[in-house]
């Protein structure tokens, strides 16, 4: 079932200018719990909510999903802006034309209980990066995978028993950024697309999720949870949005009430000047 707002809660969509740390409220709703903002090339913002996908204008304008099952908050926009790829609640990834038309299933059937959670598309639009979730006995295993956007054979990038998530391509297409618990609690890493040379990017007491490289490679935006947080829960206090610069500096841009849905997917503006996020104040 889709998440819903609690009594007295609202969804607030913001855009932050990273140079000035100015936060602009773009849209708010006390009816729809919307999540995970993306940008279209023309600057339009896209969010999901109630199992549906929406453009953000004066109101939420539904994007027709072309027969795709209800979706979750993992969706990315193709570089040319013509297609949105969505993770549906049936565990598969679909391609949906932005301007309407039938949806197309991209992912393969990898057996009962295997779920695909989409997070990235390569800069040339040919490859998707997703998290593959499967159960081995009673153990929940998540790894980074890729698949051609047109459909085809999956490639497993990481192969371990650690909790991996948030796989997203670097702007040059060479790396996949992700968060992992391989060194304890969740921190940020990157791995070469062919699966070698894993590099750790953060190492602190906070629980760090969902690295989003800026299109111009100037920084990585991410969600930071309080120490001791397990997973990436919804509706918690002191969720921080951080910026990791190329010289290793970590800048805190804001602290908010939120978490799940705040910034799950690529959320930078095309010109790298800002990114979008959602808060859920009570």
UniProtKB/TrEMBL annotation:
One Pfam family named in its UniProt record: PD40
**Gene3D superfamilies, per database record:** TolB, C-terminal domain
Cross-referenced InterPro entries = 6-blade_b-propeller_TolB-like, WD40
Protein name (database record):
Biopolymer transporter Tol
Q: Which domain of life is it from?
A: Bacteria
Name the family the entry cites.
Belongs to the TolB family.
